[in-house]
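Revision sheet: structure tokens.
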Amino acid sequence: MKSPRLLCRIHGLQPQKQLGQNFLADAATAQTIVERSGLRPQDTVVEIGPGLGALTFPLSQAVQTVIAIEKDAALARVLEKELLDTGTANVRVVQADVLEIELPALAREAGQPLTVIGNLPYNISSQVLIQLIAARRQVPRAVLMFQKELSARLRAAPGGRDYGRITVLLRYCADIRRLATVRAAHFFPTPKVDSEVLDIRFRPQALYPPHDEERLFRLIAASFGQRRKTLKNALCASDLRVSAEAAARALRQAGIDPARRAETLSAAEFVALEISLRGLARDPAGDGT
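Predicted:
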């Protein structure tokens, strides 16, 4: 596989900063990521943002099928040419925005669950994670590269400023471990920060009592929407239409101090709060005793 610098020169390409185009330029690092991913020969992998194929080619040697989703039409054409020139037949390039792709439909087409792999641009990382959480029954696993500071936020524990809405959502439904650190010098163009590769494995079953997941996600969003406020005040100011009295009562029933803030709550506590709020909605006069 030719280096991304050489391919850009040959094809007259300029990396697009607005698309977060920093191409992995170290073949050994790409191979390490694929090896540590623990993929099986029968797997179907969806690669997000394959760029010029640094991960695509080692992936094609490790799995049955790679579906490479590339937003940039010029990059997609170059990648298709490189695949053709190397006789790589098990990669399908799809020129599209991944945020407009129906991952469950791809899984049905493949006849099996998918593994998603990719180097995510910072500006769409949260949106892609939300998309994966929604499709986690069809995509039980993702191996994704993030800028180091975002990786730290995704793995953060409750109580710090790095802990946010996406952190809670991932802790609610997935187990995360760090697979590798990739130095900035291994990319072209060279970004300002290093990156980390995370292995995200979505759990097949929830760990929590019965609850309304859609309402839970709305509750988490509302709580972090005004994270400087106490939970009671954040809920009152949100579009959940919770009165101050109901918010305080629900928090007490869930065993949560109303003066706490969203970044101090675990996923389990958010579930308990959703259950408590739903109970009050059914019985507004109830006091939980």
